[in-house]
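User: Here's a chain of 214 residues. Predict its fold as tokens.
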Amino acid sequence: MLIFRPENDNGRKNEMNEEINKDEIIKSAIIRAAQDLFKQYGISKTTMEDIAKKAGKAKSTLYYYFKNKEEIFLAVANKEGEEATVYIDEQVDKCKTATEKILAYMTSSVSCLTQKINLYNVVRGEIREYWGIVDEIKRKFNNEEINKIAMIFRMGIKNGEFRRLEDGDVEILAYVLVVSLRGITENLIYDNPYPNLESRIHTLIDIMINGLKK
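Assistant: Prediction complete.
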């Protein structure tokens, strides 16, 4: 008499999880290798062969996970953006008042980008060629940052730091702040006429905050 036993769902799930983890480990290794090479040689001079060799993988493995070098650059840019977001959030979370949080957001954003620019100095001349990829990443993080800044403004209004605003005005103010900062940071990529900009951000924030106070 044959006895049919149902497949072990937990076993199948574990196998799937292991496969997913393996894929993520390989992708992370490729992205880290590309990060190092882009910093050292730039994007154009780095080949898929270079990345494969640095990652210790076959070239065919790269093409299994990424369609081309541009897709790898997108993954690298996304990783850099996520790392920057974590750093900025940590600085903001250390602050108690809304005013301090806004200041921390602005200064840490500029300092973080300045550090990234120094690391990727060789890439600066190539950014225009890959601006479509950079713009895609920028749009993603812009929306996240606008929501965070709007929450900080609402916190300041609620605790009496800032004068009361219509909710729509809060969204607009957050949008203006984030987009203005993005404009500043984009100019830093191509040219940096104000090497002490990070310290001067305090003055700009004071002007803005004074306009918000009661």
